[in-house]
Amino acid sequence: QGKDKKSKCAGVKIGLLQHLYQFVRSSSKPSLPGPPSRFLIGNMMELTHDHLPIHLTDLGQRYGSVYRLKCGKTTMVVLNSCEVIREALVKKWSDFAGRPISYTGDIVSGGGRNISLGDYTEEWRAHRRLVHSALQRCCQRSLHGVIERQALHLRKVLMDYQESAVDLSEDFTVAASNVITTLAFGKEYDKTSPELQELHHCLNKIVALWGSSWISALDSFPLLRKLPNPVFACLLKEVARRDAIIKQHLNSYKAQNKINEDAITGFLLQGLDKHQSTESGELLTDVHVHMATVDLLIGGTETAAAWLSWTVAFLLHRPEVQTSVYEELCRVLEGRYPKYSDRHRLPVLSSLISEMLRLRPVAPLAVPHRAIRDSSIAGYFIPKNTVIIPNLFGAHHDPAVWPEPYSFKPERFQEGGGGSARFLMPFGGGARLCLGESVAKIELFLFTAYLLRDFQFVLPQNECSLPDLTGVASVVLKIKAYKVVACPRP
Ligand code: HEM
Prior knowledge:
The chain is α+β, with helices and mostly antiparallel strands. It has helices spanning 2-27, 52-63, 82-91, 103-108, 122-141, 143-160, 169-185, 194-211, 213-220, 230-255, 264-275, 286-317, 319-333, 347-359, 392-395, 437-454; strands at 66-71, 74-79, 369-370, 375-377, 380-382, 387-390, 455-458, 472-473, 477-478, 485-488.
């Protein structure tokens, strides 16, 4: 009994010392600035703005490059400059590699077993390593050919429009999605395919519903989970539909006699046998392959497609940039189609791509991170479990780094233009760097090069206003619908 009492006493002392240590650490550092927080709701209203990345960037002008927002019991810290984002995501990656643990996140991520929303655990690391090797292998073996094929198909679709005014966003989505489905299960779809439409409809709906305040309120205010919520019911239905579609794909893939290791799914299924057990003994299973497929489809479709729509719209605003890219392609490639390895010989095209990644990082707030231990950013104390929002849009519009940050000026990335790719972070960084970065870079380069080699994009004759460049921000930053005419180059 005496021993028991002693060890309890020691436990209490250690607990007290830990609290004291945390108090001393936090009080020796300045407290985080931020807008006044309201009773119960905190700063929740700040998060309901239409264009959240712009609003968070504006708050950064007032409160500095690191500030806090309160939401229920959660403290969020918004990072607005490349310097502080790099400090958290790259330099102190192991402190900030977590993802917020949320009720609704768990539902859409198969209980946290996907890569993008899964927390930083041994199991997650083994999962990410396996999918990363699959993607690297694809990049080396087949990716270039898969993208070239889709770019040529897109060319045919645009030719078939015969210079009529059209909204190209869906064609871009199909092209980007076909790259992923070909890589994943060796399958590509036509735009009219009901199977493809169902898949897109369902994935888009999940992303949109999950981003809605009806759903995020369930994470901040658990009591609301007891009330009927039709939006939440709809989310559950779409998640079930998504899982049924992916399951059917995986089953029909497995039913083939020979598993093709060239397709990502084949490699992952084979990989399960080889890497099944992580160091701590957890197993990677079919569920991980299933969720990785969801990750690649969601991560790889809307992002690249939205980026292409943005690029064409900006080019309508500055047609002379199109001309200079076209002239460069003709001069350097002498009529042939480009390869990714040509990129260093095409500085004008490369500068356009960099400027578009700067102006419209299509995942403008990345995916929220979570501090997995007490740490600090820019000298501010950041306690464990703080949610970190890397405002990539804000960092790319920081006037201290980018003169005239809101202007579309690809020249800034050309020789002597003063812009440096060192300050670009469209894919985030560190342990959570976009898993599809290499795929995306090849895709953006080849699609843009093929499109600008073969077409001149012009405003429809009956259209007097240029596309609105403000955009609609959700998880992905998209442009509002607009029509364009694709005129074949001679
Ligand atoms: C223009 C194209 C793209 C951009 C700008 C982009 C950007 C990003 C960003 C900012 C993140 C969050 C990083 C963080 O949390 O710090 C991310 C995560 C991710 N992206 Fe991408 N992405 C693109 C294309 C792709 C493609 C093509 C794929 C799949 C082939 C993909 C798959 C993923 C996955 C799986 C994650 C989660 C990584 C993790 O949590 O560890 N992305 N992406």
